[in-house]
Design a protein that fits this description.
- It is a single chain.
- This protein is α+β, with helices and mostly antiparallel strands and 167 residues long.
- It has 3 helices and 10 strands, in the order αββββββββαββα.
- Strands 1-2-3-4-5-8-7-6-9-10 form a 10-stranded antiparallel beta sheet, with helices on both faces.
- Helix 2 crosses helix 3 (152-164).
Length: 167
Amino acid sequence: MKQFLLAAGILAGAAALSSRPALAQQSKVGDWTIEKRTQDTHCNASRGYKDKQDENRDYVIVITYSDKAIVIVMIYDGWEWDKVGEILRADVGTDDADIMRKAKWEVMDKTTVRGIFEYDQSIMDRLSKAKRLTLDFEDDDEDSIEMQIPRAGEALAALKFCEENRK
Protein backbone atom coordinates (compact mmCIF):
# COMPACT_ATOMS: atom_id res chain seq x y z
CA MET A 1 0.00 0.00 0.00
CA LYS A 2 2.86 2.41 0.84
CA GLN A 3 4.31 1.71 -2.61
CA PHE A 4 1.04 2.84 -4.20
CA LEU A 5 0.91 5.99 -2.05
CA LEU A 6 4.51 6.84 -2.88
CA ALA A 7 3.87 6.32 -6.59
CA ALA A 8 0.74 8.43 -6.41
CA GLY A 9 2.61 11.24 -4.70
CA ILE A 10 5.28 11.15 -7.36
CA LEU A 11 2.68 11.17 -10.13
CA ALA A 12 0.88 14.08 -8.51
CA GLY A 13 3.86 16.27 -9.24
CA ALA A 14 6.70 15.17 -6.99
CA ALA A 15 10.18 14.54 -8.26
CA ALA A 16 11.30 10.95 -7.70
CA LEU A 17 14.08 10.40 -5.20
CA SER A 18 16.07 7.24 -4.80
CA SER A 19 15.55 7.07 -1.05
CA ARG A 20 12.46 7.40 1.08
CA PRO A 21 11.14 10.96 0.87
CA ALA A 22 11.75 13.23 3.81
CA LEU A 23 8.57 14.71 5.22
CA ALA A 24 8.51 18.38 6.11
CA GLN A 25 4.89 18.30 7.29
CA GLN A 26 2.50 15.39 7.83
CA SER A 27 -0.83 14.85 9.57
CA LYS A 28 -3.63 12.28 9.62
CA VAL A 29 -7.36 12.78 9.21
CA GLY A 30 -8.99 9.39 9.74
CA ASP A 31 -7.18 7.18 7.23
CA TRP A 32 -6.18 10.11 5.01
CA THR A 33 -2.57 11.32 5.07
CA ILE A 34 -1.98 15.03 4.52
CA GLU A 35 1.63 15.79 3.71
CA LYS A 36 4.03 18.30 2.29
CA ARG A 37 7.18 16.44 1.34
CA THR A 38 10.39 18.42 1.01
CA GLN A 39 10.68 17.68 -2.72
CA ASP A 40 7.05 18.67 -3.47
CA THR A 41 5.82 22.16 -4.24
CA HIS A 42 2.31 21.54 -2.90
CA CYS A 43 0.66 19.45 -0.19
CA ASN A 44 -1.06 16.14 -0.98
CA ALA A 45 -4.03 14.37 0.59
CA SER A 46 -3.90 10.61 0.04
CA ARG A 47 -5.98 7.64 1.08
CA GLY A 48 -5.51 3.98 0.30
CA TYR A 49 -7.55 0.93 1.19
CA LYS A 50 -8.25 -2.67 0.21
CA ASP A 51 -11.77 -3.65 -0.85
CA LYS A 52 -12.71 -7.11 0.45
CA GLN A 53 -15.67 -7.18 -1.94
CA ASP A 54 -13.30 -6.70 -4.90
CA GLU A 55 -10.77 -9.51 -4.42
CA ASN A 56 -8.99 -7.43 -1.75
CA ARG A 57 -7.69 -5.07 -4.47
CA ASP A 58 -5.87 -1.84 -3.60
CA TYR A 59 -7.55 1.52 -4.18
CA VAL A 60 -5.57 4.76 -3.75
CA ILE A 61 -6.51 8.39 -4.32
CA VAL A 62 -4.22 11.42 -4.12
CA ILE A 63 -5.55 14.98 -4.33
CA THR A 64 -3.44 18.11 -4.58
CA TYR A 65 -4.22 21.61 -5.76
CA SER A 66 -2.94 25.11 -6.31
CA ASP A 67 -4.69 28.33 -7.24
CA LYS A 68 -4.38 27.21 -10.88
CA ALA A 69 -5.16 23.47 -10.89
CA ILE A 70 -6.65 20.50 -9.09
CA VAL A 71 -4.83 17.21 -9.60
CA ILE A 72 -6.44 13.87 -8.79
CA VAL A 73 -4.51 10.62 -9.12
CA MET A 74 -6.42 7.34 -8.86
CA ILE A 75 -4.73 3.96 -8.56
CA TYR A 76 -6.63 0.70 -8.80
CA ASP A 77 -4.81 -2.61 -9.07
CA GLY A 78 -7.67 -4.08 -11.08
CA TRP A 79 -6.87 -1.84 -14.03
CA GLU A 80 -4.58 -2.97 -16.82
CA TRP A 81 -4.09 0.08 -19.03
CA ASP A 82 -1.92 -0.65 -22.05
CA LYS A 83 -0.65 2.72 -23.21
CA VAL A 84 1.15 5.13 -20.89
CA GLY A 85 0.25 8.66 -21.93
CA GLU A 86 -3.08 7.65 -23.46
CA ILE A 87 -5.87 10.16 -22.81
CA LEU A 88 -9.14 8.67 -21.61
CA ARG A 89 -12.48 10.41 -21.21
CA ALA A 90 -14.65 9.83 -18.16
CA ASP A 91 -17.59 11.44 -16.43
CA VAL A 92 -16.59 12.37 -12.88
CA GLY A 93 -19.10 12.39 -10.08
CA THR A 94 -19.74 11.83 -6.42
CA ASP A 95 -22.43 9.94 -4.56
CA ASP A 96 -24.72 12.97 -4.85
CA ALA A 97 -23.41 15.30 -7.58
CA ASP A 98 -21.99 15.33 -11.08
CA ILE A 99 -18.65 17.13 -11.24
CA MET A 100 -17.56 17.01 -14.88
CA ARG A 101 -18.58 15.26 -18.08
CA LYS A 102 -16.00 13.74 -20.41
CA ALA A 103 -13.05 14.88 -18.30
CA LYS A 104 -9.55 14.04 -19.56
CA TRP A 105 -7.58 11.43 -17.62
CA GLU A 106 -4.03 10.47 -18.54
CA VAL A 107 -2.78 6.90 -18.13
CA MET A 108 0.36 7.06 -15.99
CA ASP A 109 1.02 3.31 -15.78
CA LYS A 110 -1.01 0.10 -15.96
CA THR A 111 -2.92 0.83 -12.73
CA THR A 112 -2.89 4.65 -12.52
CA VAL A 113 -4.73 7.57 -14.09
CA ARG A 114 -4.29 11.28 -13.44
CA GLY A 115 -6.72 14.13 -14.03
CA ILE A 116 -5.52 17.73 -14.07
CA PHE A 117 -8.32 20.28 -13.96
CA GLU A 118 -8.41 24.06 -13.92
CA TYR A 119 -8.99 25.16 -10.33
CA ASP A 120 -12.69 25.57 -9.60
CA GLN A 121 -13.92 26.00 -6.02
CA SER A 122 -17.19 24.25 -6.89
CA ILE A 123 -15.21 21.05 -7.64
CA MET A 124 -13.54 21.27 -4.22
CA ASP A 125 -16.93 21.90 -2.60
CA ARG A 126 -18.47 18.83 -4.26
CA LEU A 127 -15.49 16.67 -3.29
CA SER A 128 -15.66 17.86 0.31
CA LYS A 129 -19.28 16.67 0.61
CA ALA A 130 -18.66 13.31 -1.06
CA LYS A 131 -18.40 9.81 0.36
CA ARG A 132 -17.57 8.29 -3.04
CA LEU A 133 -15.85 9.50 -6.19
CA THR A 134 -16.77 7.84 -9.48
CA LEU A 135 -15.12 7.71 -12.88
CA ASP A 136 -17.40 6.46 -15.65
CA PHE A 137 -15.15 5.86 -18.66
CA GLU A 138 -16.64 6.31 -22.13
CA ASP A 139 -17.36 3.00 -23.83
CA ASP A 140 -15.66 1.05 -21.03
CA ASP A 141 -17.92 0.00 -18.16
CA GLU A 142 -15.39 -2.62 -17.01
CA ASP A 143 -12.84 0.02 -16.08
CA SER A 144 -15.28 2.49 -14.53
CA ILE A 145 -14.68 2.83 -10.80
CA GLU A 146 -16.23 3.99 -7.56
CA MET A 147 -13.68 4.98 -4.92
CA GLN A 148 -14.59 5.44 -1.26
CA ILE A 149 -13.55 8.86 0.10
CA PRO A 150 -14.99 9.08 3.65
CA ARG A 151 -14.18 12.21 5.65
CA ALA A 152 -13.16 13.97 2.44
CA GLY A 153 -14.37 17.32 3.81
CA GLU A 154 -12.07 17.06 6.82
CA ALA A 155 -9.18 15.84 4.67
CA LEU A 156 -9.61 18.71 2.20
CA ALA A 157 -9.81 21.22 5.07
CA ALA A 158 -6.52 19.80 6.40
CA LEU A 159 -5.08 19.97 2.87
CA LYS A 160 -6.09 23.63 2.64
CA PHE A 161 -4.45 24.31 6.02
CA CYS A 162 -1.29 22.54 4.82
CA GLU A 163 -1.26 24.61 1.62
CA GLU A 164 -1.72 27.86 3.55
CA ASN A 165 1.13 26.97 5.93
CA ARG A 166 3.56 25.14 3.66
CA LYS A 167 7.21 26.03 3.88
